[in-house]
Amino acid sequence: MVLEIINPSDSYTMETDDKAAACAAVSLLGSGQYGLKDLANGEDILPVLIFCQDEDHFNEIFKKYAGMGLNEVMETRREQVAEALESVLIGDRAAYEDAIKGITDDTERAAFAEKWHAEKRTSLNDIGGRAKDIAAALRRSSETP
Questions:
Q1: Alpha carbon of 59 to those of 45, 77, 82, 126: distances in Å?
Q2: Contact 50, 40 (CB under 8 A)
């Protein structure tokens, strides 16, 4: 499913079929300041949680939408959370996918993705860059020594 990241900055989407991982990803990404909406049907996947009074209130609402607590998601679905974060994209996802489908070289694809991101971003708040950084940190922390 393609999910809109509700935020006060640029337009971003995330693509995943794992609702719990999506909720965890956007919670890590925005520290409760961002929500998620399913673009296909308009369903709220996760509301903005910045106004929660405390950690217990946050966890109660998070669990209601994700089906499990944030800690449980991170323990059992860390890989899926990283994948959801890596899918974060600025701008029109369909236009991006149409433009990149003809690029087969991995280096060229990465360069195109970087250029797309730089050209579409208007805010100093780099949600897409932060998503990639968090995903990389999650993957590093999952590696066995």
A1: 15, 17, 20, 26
A2: no
Dihedral angle sign, alpha carbons of residues 81, 131, 92, 47: positive
Q: Is the Cβ–Cβ distance between 35 and 47 less than 8 Å?
A: yes
pTM of this structure: 0.91
| DSSP at 17 | S
Burial class (CB in 10 A: 0-12, 13-18, 19+), 34: buried
| pLDDT per residue rounded down to tens, the chain (145 residues) | 999 999 999 999 999 999 999 999 999 999 889 999 999 999 999 999 888 878 888 888 889 999 999 999 999 999 999 999 999 999 999 999 999 999 999 999 999 999 999 999 999 999 999 999 999 999 998 775 5
Q: Which helix (H) or strand (E) holds 6?
A: strand 2-6
**Tokens at 75, concatenated:** 């323990």
Closest among 6, 40, 13, 36 to 24, alpha carbons compared: 36
**Paired strand residues for 4:** 13, 37
In the chain, where the domains are located = 2-91+125-142
